[in-house]
Structures are given as C-alpha cells and as structure tokens.
C-alpha cells in the first residue's frame, strides 16, 4: 500500500485544484449571492472532461474511474460546493444510471452529450413526504399503447431545471407484485416532454449557485423503450447508484472540510488580536489541528471505499462509513472555521460563511446520517 497518488491521479488533482482557484474562486461568491447557476464554469468543466471522467472513451468519456471523479470533487469543494455538487449529480446521478443500466441505444443517444458537459442529467427519486423512505414511491407509470404515462411529483432534484438539463430518470410504480408490494421501475424522461414541468425553484440555506427544483409529471407520455434497466428493478438499481454516490458525497465533504482548514490557516496568519497573529494562540492552534485530523481521517475513509469499489469488492458498509464520517467532518470544520474567523465568519464575503451554509446538507442529502448508521448496523449483522 502507498500513501501517494499515482502520477496520473496527481496530475488530475493538480489541474482541478488550479481550475478551482483560478476560475471558480474569483467569481463564485457573486453567483452564490445572486442565486445564479454558473453556466460558464460548467462549460469550462465540460471542456476539461470532468463530466466524462469515469466513462469509457467510446461514449465520449475520459476512460478514467470513479476515484478520479472523487478527486475532482474534493478539489472543487475546497473552493465551492455548488460547483462540486453540480458535477457530482451530473455524473453519479444523471449519467451513471444510463451507463450502468441503460440499453445500448440509450447509452449511444445520451452519454456523449452528458460526458461532454453539453447537457446535464438528473435523478428523480425523492418525493414530497418521502425523504429517507424512498421505497414509498407514489409517482406512477402505466403502459398505454406503447408509451409510459407518468404521473407524480419529485422534490429536491439537482440539475433538473437548467437551460442545459436534457433528461431526468425517475422512479415510478409500474405495477404490483404478487405479494402486493409495489413494482418500482426507472423511466427516462427527456426535458421538454409534454406533461413534464419544472415546479418551484427552492430558496435554500446553501448550495445557492446550484440548481434544485420540484418536478411535476401530469400524464407525461414517453416511449416504452425509455425504461431504464429491467422492469421492477428500478429501486434496486438506484440503491446501487446511491452506494456509489455516497463515496462521491464523502469526497465532496472532505473537500469542504479541507477548505475550512485552508481558509483558517490563511486567516490565522493574517488576523491580529492582542498584539499577535491569532495563529500564535493555542486555542486557535488546537482548533485547526482538530479540523485537519477530521479531514485527514475522512479522506482515508473515502479512499478505502473507492478502492474496494474499483476492486469489485463489497463496499456498501465502507461507503456508508465514509459518507457518515466525512459529512460530520464537514459540519464540524465549518462550525470551527466560522469560530476562528469570528464576526467575519458570519459574513458571506468570506468563503467560510458559504462553507457553513453548505455543510449541513451533506448530513442529509443522498442518505441522512441516520440512514448511514442503519446501513452500517445491517452490514454488521444487526437486525433489520
């Protein structure tokens, strides 16, 4: 085992680090304050190939792997989480279901555009009143003359209402099993399909430069071949997607946690109080040391989960651990960084103010911390 990244991974990490500091950092605060989606930044990310990192070259991808995506997410989130979550959702939630489960025709049609960043895909799972109980799907889809007719509402959907959103893959009840349980399938709905509309744009605590909307389906008709994967396997497919996505969210969380360390170190060397730079005081030193320890430990957790995934080994427990540990680290580090900055940490002019607002969702999105603990307990053999 080596603690060093390979030359290829390190080159990617450095290039995204430079992009985050040179392109994202100078302008993202304005986007965040105005609640504007950063189209020009997303276009540049597409030109760099970031949206195609884990996909084969035959689909316009970079021929990399999921760990490469995680490294990019960490570096972006060290500067801003809105940009990082746009990439994470576009890849792991938008494109990955089609790559993992889509037909040859679906892959040929959609993946090149998604890999280039020319278009974004979204993942329609969560419903109003559903939250963590994703299996309690109420959206329905019935077959009628060779078409699926979709009715229902999805909530908190990232990348679902931008000018470049091309599709949403939604879970819907397509029938009942012999035991009465719902048969849940995944159906691809292109943007602009009649009966598919983007509802309210949420006013959020954080991630203000990312796109999050409610989606409404009213007798929305799509061809029968828009079924993604096997009929009745939609829920199981998305559980697999969420296992992978938890590693990506862990990487994003580590980036935010490390960004808090970066900003605090810089500020501690500049800010003076009682005649000395505050970095001279043990209270500040210990706080920053704890922040670094959290970020380091969380990084090891997501590295381990990603390594197991790429090796084809079971990784569900490790992904849940990584997501739990890293989201906790992000939240704790954001709180401590705000304390280091004092009153300035409460101002949106400073990055740590954005970090603090962005951190909380990491303990909720793509599986709450409580869900992660439940998954870990089940993997340990405790009763379901």
UniProtKB/TrEMBL annotation:
Residues 232-380 form the Acyl-CoA dehydrogenase/oxidase C-terminal domain. Residues 6-118 form the Acyl-CoA dehydrogenase/oxidase N-terminal domain. Pfam families: Acyl-CoA_dh_1, Acyl-CoA_dh_M, Acyl-CoA_dh_N. InterPro entries: Acyl-CoA_DH_CS, Acyl-CoA_Oxase/DH_mid-dom, Acyl-CoA_Oxase/DH_mid-dom_sf, AcylCo_DH-like_C, AcylCo_DH/oxidase_C, AcylCoA_DH/ox_N, AcylCoA_DH/ox_N_sf, AcylCoA_DH/oxidase_NM_dom_sf. GO terms for molecular function: acyl-CoA dehydrogenase activity; flavin adenine dinucleotide binding. Gene3D superfamilies: Acyl-CoA dehydrogenase/oxidase, N-terminal domain, Butyryl-CoA Dehydrogenase, subunit A, domain 2, Butyryl-CoA Dehydrogenase, subunit A, domain 3. Its cofactor is FAD. The keyword Oxidoreductase applies. Residues 122-220 form the Acyl-CoA oxidase/dehydrogenase middle domain. The keyword Zinc does not apply. Keywords: FAD, Flavoprotein, Oxidoreductase. It comes from the Bacteria. Belongs to the acyl-CoA dehydrogenase family. PANTHER family: ACYL-COA DEHYDROGENASE, ISOVALERYL-COA DEHYDROGENASE, MITOCHONDRIAL-RELATED. This is Butyryl-CoA dehydrogenase. The lineage of its organism: Bacteria, Bacillati, Actinomycetota, Actinomycetes, Streptosporangiales.
